[in-house]
């Protein structure tokens, strides 16, 4: 067996696209940074502002099995304008993150991509909101960067 990352990314993207909040908010879902701009976005495998994204670190064991410890970055970004733009952007961003967390909790093997080891989980997140005057003039943005971790026995 090889790396779990390609199959896991394909599973995450396809399954996320089917989530009710993603469809209700008309979110773009991308494997990597998208080529088109969207007011509501979910992207896996990248974090904004980084040239490269570290995704996995293999760990050698004493047995013949190799274990791949994966830390997969993801990001949700929501932009809103008008009255209560900050609150609406934040509320919509967390609706997406909560749906993704539930999706992972429902299938911790990510569609069979993760062979027994440590099952997938959302291990942490950070939130930022629009702070600079110029971007604030274009609406308000809430960005939540998160990490999905798992250990795959390859």
Helix count, DSSP H or I runs of 4 or more residues? 4
Strand content: 25-35%
The major pleated sheet works out as: 6 strands, mixed
Helix content: 25-40%
Please give the radius of gyration in angstroms. 17 Å
Q: Give the CA-based shape.
A: elongated
The parts where pLDDT drops under 50 for at least 5 residues are none
What is the CATH C level class, in words?
A: Alpha Beta
Task: Could you tell me the CATH topology label.
Answer: STM4215-like
Distance between the termini: 5 Å
Assembly state: single chain
* Helix-strand topology string: HHEEEEHEHE
Protein name: DUF3168 domain-containing protein
Organism: Micromonospora carbonacea
Nutshell version of this structure?
This protein is 29% helix and 34% strand. It contains 4 helices and 6 strands.
Structural notes for this entry:
The chain has one domain: STM4215-like. The chain is of the alpha+beta class. The protein has helices at 5-17, 20-24, 85-106, 133-136, and strands at residues 28-31, 40-44, 56-60, 66-80, 121-129, 140-153. Helices cover 29% and strands 34% of the residues. Strands 1, 2, 3, 4, 5 and 6 form a six-stranded mixed β-sheet that branches. Strand 3 (56-60) and strand 4 (66-80) form a beta hairpin. It is built from four helices and six strands.
Kindly list the characteristics that best describe this protein.
34% strand; elongated; six-stranded mixed beta sheet; 4 helices; STM4215-like; DUF3168 domain-containing protein; 154 residues
SSE order and pairing:
Blueprint: H1 5-17, H2 20-24, E1 28-31, E2 40-44, E3 56-60, E4 66-80, H3 85-106, E5 121-129, H4 133-136, E6 140-153
Parallel strand pairs: 1-2
Antiparallel strand pairs: 2-4, 3-4, 4-6, 5-6
Organism: Micromonospora carbonacea
Protein name: DUF3168 domain-containing protein
